[in-house]
Amino acid sequence: MKFCTGSRVWLTLGALGGASSVLLGAYGAHGLEELFSEVPRKRTAYGNAVDYQMIHSLLLVVLGFFGSTNKLGARLLSINASLLVASMLLFSGSIYLWVFGGSDWLLKLTPAGGIGFVLSWLLLGFQVRAKNEK
106: buried, middle or exposed (CB in 10 Å: 19+, 13-18, 0-12)? Predict the structure, then answer.
């Protein structure tokens, strides 16, 4: 199957995001028990970060397969995929850094990632419409 360069980038980043969420989830389940017993709130936050990273990595893969046949659709694909990557870094990344000893101020970045996730899902609707317009 052939993909345009942009789609290959998003498929690759989605695959890497999915793989790393599996590894981080396994590490959280088997390597962070002591940390989580000291601060139980971190277990929940970490689990949410892993879950949201996996879900949105899958969406990134979907976007990579989605492709586009027109300029508007290609532009929306690029914007949406970029937004997803930034949102994963803000949401999950800020939680991971906090869990691994970062300052509490990092958690102020998490909602920005969540808003980005919502915008990305909404943008997907526009992409579907743009894809059908030629």
Answer: middle
